[in-house]
User: Fold these one by one.
Assistant:
Number 1:
Amino acid sequence: MSSQVSIARLLAPDRILAGLKAKTYRDAVVQLLDRLDAAGLISDRAAVEELVDAEIAAGALPTLGPHALLAHYRTDAVQELAVAIATSPRPFAFAPPKAAEAVFVVLILVPRSAARYYLKTLAGLSRLLRNPEVAEGLARATSPDEFLELVTQRDVVIRPELTVHDLMSRDVHSVSPEALLSEALHLMVRHRRRGLPVLSDNGEVLGMISEQEVLQHFLPQVLGGATREGEQPEIEDVEVRYAMQRSVMCLSEDQLISDVLGTMLTESVSQFPVVREGKLVGFLSRTDIIRKLLEHSV
């Protein structure tokens, strides 16, 4: 998904069924399938209906908040995400007890390759329909055009997945392998970095030097040095090449932040060089993610 998409743009008038008349949940879903089928979005109607029947047989009908029943299926019978919605001014008689006030049936068909886009769409619809005032107005709509006008007024934008390129720092500080460890430490303190990439003359990432390596080298000397009272222990400095991590996990700019966060949690890694064609172009740390996500949410 390369650009922002709004809920209103996902819903065409022919995919909105205002004033649904259906006696059963299956009947409601089939009427919505008819809309998507007529729009030429379904390549294998029988396969989709099999999914509907299997869900009903399992006996656990999903909901999307207190006002909506949700029929959602991942299937190769569609080539793109398709959404249809049915409304009723009064709660559906066939709604389960956990959604006794449901006045919407939402049908989402999504190709297996579009899982992240589907989750974003689901979240957007949930935000829209969970608002009691909005839900009441949409349920009273007597035509698809009226429904869409209300959606547009309260529209929800589905933002694209954030990538490393969106959040990485481009003002990158680095050191050469010949730099002294003390120089790397001063850079980290000055620029509030917990680590720095170590670069070759042509910009390739050779390794990382972090607070951990600095402490491992200097701390034993500071704590264990035998000196006369009042004298400072003599500290042996070394070149970064002798202390740096040589096994470094680098990121590409197009990787998803959601995947990077998973790696941070499972691998206990908090910072990454970002490379393009083997050359350093940015840096991403846990702090960068937290700070910039907060900026996006304000």
Note: The mean pLDDT is 84.
Number 2:
Amino acid sequence: MEYYVWTEKMSVGYQGRPLIKQIQIGLKKGEILTLIGPNGAGKSTVLKSIARQLDLLGGTVWLDGRRVAELSGTELSRRMAVVLTERLRGEMMTCQEVVATGRYPYTGRFGILSGEDRRAVAEAMELVHVTEIGGQDFARISDGQRQRVMLARAVCQEPEILILDEPTSYLDIRYKLEFLSVLQEMQRKKGLTVIMSLHELELAQRISDRILCLNGRYVDRFGTPAEIFQAGYLSKLFGVSQGSYDEVNGSMELSAARGKAEVFVLAGAGEGRPLYRRLQRQGIPFATGILFRNDLDYPVAKALAAEVIETEAFEPVPEETLLAAKRAVDSCGSVICCREDFGTFEAANRELLAYARQSGKLRQDLEKPGSTKARYLLQ
């Protein structure tokens, strides 16, 4: 069989009632598949069904050419490790003892750890950065620490396939990145196959080889990150009605202030974003420009500004675009410049700044126009 993990017309649900039908997934060994979708879309149900923790309502799950349903419990636990959102009851156990339970598929009926088992436990704890809390009571550590201990337990199991339900949900940004880096390292060095769900779309986009999109009734889309992160698709999948999400740039913004622009912001090179968001928080509609379409400010400006004066990247600014920017300055009550200086191809913005200064609309009360302080001191 071409695929290491293959689901054939898989249907999943609870108590005989199907939730999602006809799920077709093909995953090669060493690939990372991420499930995304709104809350309640069926991500955990799919993961539990693949892991044989829920009975299939139809179809088959294949693992390396064999039906998962036909594998013995011991063989399945040696090949597959699972970390779900339900908490392990680890009363009277240290964190190291919890991690060591990942070796039970190898220890025999008495659960006695060999030297090799102990090395595997130590390496897993070091890999996931929980060695320093190994002697602490598992029941008394934080949610984030508990999540990392459970991840170490799964790694310690030395599986061929790892199934994770929201593994980064309790981790701070440092440990999110460290954990995903560990997954990538195990993927590359050991051929580990990973199937997981994530809420963080930007992480899913970066780490996944394949992405499965669920909407609660069926598989909406299955493909590579490039095929999934198409303009407008994820906003539709998640039913975004307030604010905006830019799939291409990964920019998520709240709803723009309504009304006619009151302030014109001269920005660019990423310098305008803090001020754009401050204006949005204060409910002040604004216009901005002149922005090249590849500028760092552009995605945020498109989401939050009442008007964006924009132009094609790597091309001279057309005269009519400069005139449109001047008209926008004329219609606003004041102008704020976020830039200290302008580049070689930004002569139009230099002229626009001079125009704003001559019109008397440039905010002189913000100390030096264009200073760092001017980016934040809107009163």
Note: The two ends are 66 Å apart (CA to CA).
Number 3:
Amino acid sequence: MTDRIYSTDQYAREVDAQIMDVDRDDGRVLLDRTVFYPGGGGQPHDLGELVIGDDRLSVVRVAEDGRGVWHWLEGGLPPAGTAVNGRVDWERRYRLMRTHTAMHALCGVVWERYASPVTGGNMEPGVGRLDFELPDWDPDDKATLEEELNAQLAAARPVEVSFLPREEADQDPSLIRTKVSLLPPSLREVRVIDIVGLDRQADGGTHVASTTEVGQVRLVKVESKGKGFRRIRLAVDDPPSAEGV
């Protein structure tokens, strides 16, 4: 199994690793350690590069299976046993982290006001959308939600990561904010993201450490997705460069 550095250290930008296996037919390699998030929960996989001496191989896709985390490379594939330095595209990753935390904060605000579950969601760097079951939606609520969301983000709430045994997590239905639980039956340990005092739910993605890092968020559009359902689209304004983070 790959040591998933991103799961416990979301600010790790690079890691020294070793290629454990090579799938030449599919153009991918399996690493023993990685900082690359393989995607899931609406968050796209990371991009970046593997550095081997003077060679830089672009990582164009990342996914996981029962063996670990696979990295698809552009160019020739190094043999198993090769030592590499994996470097994530940090500017893109950090924007995804800010976007993901903003979406969880929106979940918390909507839940507090409507007690409505999420029925779907997706994101790209800087933008995202969440679908909710909102039978009592009033168009005037959009401005109120945006104001409350930004107030919660400005409150400097810490974003904490913890892990629970599956049996314990199953006893806490509040960890699932989606209409249907997306936790696979085989998962034995549940990773929990807690925006302290606002939103706590099972999640495998990457997040910032404090809501102040998200910055200003705009609710760009609220669309009807059928009777009683709404799609809320948000955008995260550009912050200063993430280089110093």
Note: DSSP finds four helices and 15 strands in the chain.
Number 4:
Amino acid sequence: MIGLGIILAIIIFSFIVFFHELGHFSLAKKNGIDVEEFAIGMGPNLFSKEYKGTRYCIKLFPIGGLCMMGEDEEATDSPSNFNNKSVWARIAVIAAGPVFNFILAFVFAVILVAMVGYDKPVITSVEEGYPAYEAGIEEGDTIVEMNGKKISIFREITAYNQFHQGVDTEVVYLHDGEERSAVLTPKMDEERNYYRFGIGGGGYTKANVLTALKYGVFEVKFWICTTLDSLKSLVTGKIGVDQLSGPVGIVSVVDDTYQQSKSYGVFMVIVQLLSIAVLLSANLGVMNLLPLPALDGGRLVFLAIEAVRRKRIPPEKEGYVHLVGITLLMALMVFVMFNDIKRIFF
């Protein structure tokens, strides 16, 4: 029997992908582009109804959705064909998917901050024998910058150290309202096998409407930067491909989170699921903007080239590139799914 955690995972993941496709759909309709099919889920249709030239469907497998626009090269005479619209209209339609994901992440983040507050980058503890203590940093100081990167929430400090292990770091901080700076060389904690600055933070500050909006932006920024840093680590080999997770892994994580938090009550379950939803939505927005064939980012590259040269790249050539991209992407998805299953069951 499928547990409630798995059901919640499927609902969250499907809604985020659905909202992505809703972005494409909304801008397509706004620009007078034919949308042949708009669907929730994948696979065979369970229900479908045509309305004003668009078939709306609910499909068998409740994972994601699709927005199929009129891009048939044989229908080039139609003014509502995607390919007959201006390059800027097409850019808007393609970019709308990732943009909607960032908007959704922001909405979730504002709700999350309003519920639990925000973690200001204020130091609550400094350990003797570590670089922060030696540099004179004290409890109550606020970190505002690390190697030129602006710090808005305490988790950014932890994430920066995680992705820059052992790297000398110039820290700008506020001490009694006075801005100071120090260069910290992280020290290896032999017990944890991890380089540390020797500072700690904790606790959340209650948010009002304005701070919830402000820190909602910081929350989305944090997850976007974390996703980009993770991709950089993947490219440089610091993270292996075998550590990637796909839909199966995501469902497993959400289910585990639900199982661990349900004993603390409904409030904690909602908080944990909202946090995951912010991460997933921001992550999907970033991943789709990568300039790779078959992704929205890859299509935007071709459209940007067209905007500069004022001439479209031959559709058949662009199609070949995206076909190769889809093939490689599907191969990667199979590999990731296999790894997810192996981690869960073996």
Note: The domain at 125-200 is CATH 2.30.42.10 (Pdz3 Domain).
